[in-house]
Specification:
Elements (H helix, E strand, L loop, with lengths): L1 H17 L5 E3 H7 L5 H13 L6 H18 L8 H4 L2 E3 H21 L10 H18 L8 H16 L2 H24 L1 H12 L1
Antiparallel strand pairs: 1-2
Helix pairs in contact: 1-6, 3-4, 3-8, 4-7, 7-8, 7-9, 8-9, 9-10
Length: 205
């Protein structure tokens, strides 16, 4: 069953694009197609939109559905739902196809290392706590702060992989990553430009 879910997770997005000949795809159709695999895939798609380099304000716009999904997880929803205002928006089919093409190989590689473990992370109460962390990380992206996009967004992405594979260890790692990103961003604000240069040199050499 776990293997079947992995196959579904990698193919759902491709099926949405390939089944439509229209120039644009409704966000509603995209989210509805993800219903069978719960929140994991929907969160993963929008998290990819945060960490892929895009000019402002796109990362902030993309993070809004993530905030909504996180709130729904905290409220106990079993699958993602979008308000009509967002559901009726559309995205260019070519843009969606490019996003899928760039992310598909990474998704398949990650799926190979996922395995069900630390199942307590998916108990209803704990899952709502995970939703709280996703909410915090996604909301943080909305703030005009240095380094507020990539690392918290990466944390959300890692959490989504764990949700897809029912891998509690990966979920925990995603939470740690997101908290690290928030800490770095807040420290950058407090310490200023020199800290940003240090982080840049540390990461990129």
């Amino acid at each position: 069953m776990a293997d079947q879910k992995k196959v579904i997770a990698t193919q759902v997005l491709e099926d949405v694009v390939n089944s439509s000949s229209a120039d644009r795809v409704l966000v509603k159709d995209l989210v509805d197609a993800m219903d069978s695999v719960g929140f994991g895939l929907a969160i993963m798609v929008f998290a990819f939109g945060i960490i892929i380099p895009l000019p402002p304000p796109f990362p902030s716009i993309i993070s809004i559905p993530l905030v909504l999904f996180a709130a729904q997880i905290m409220a106990g929803y079993s699958s993602p739902k979008l308000p009509k205002r967002f559901a009726n928006l559309s995205v260019k089919r070519s843009v969606l196809a490019t996003l899928i093409q760039r992310s598909a190989s990474y998704i398949r590689k990650v799926e190979k290392i996922l395995k069900p473990r630390l199942s307590f992370m998916f108990y209803p109460g704990v899952e709502r706590l995970v939703g709280f962390f996703i909410f915090i990380f996604s909301a943080f992206v909305l703030l005009p702060m240095p380094l507020s996009n990539f690392i918290p967004g990466l944390g959300v992405l890692i959490i989504s992989f764990g949700m897809l594979g029912k891998d509690g260890l990966v979920v925990i790692f995603g939470i740690i990553t997101g908290l690290t990103g928030i800490t770095i961003s807040i420290t950058a604000v407090v310490l200023g430009v020199e800290f940003l240069r240090y982080i840049k040199n540390f990461i990129f050499g």
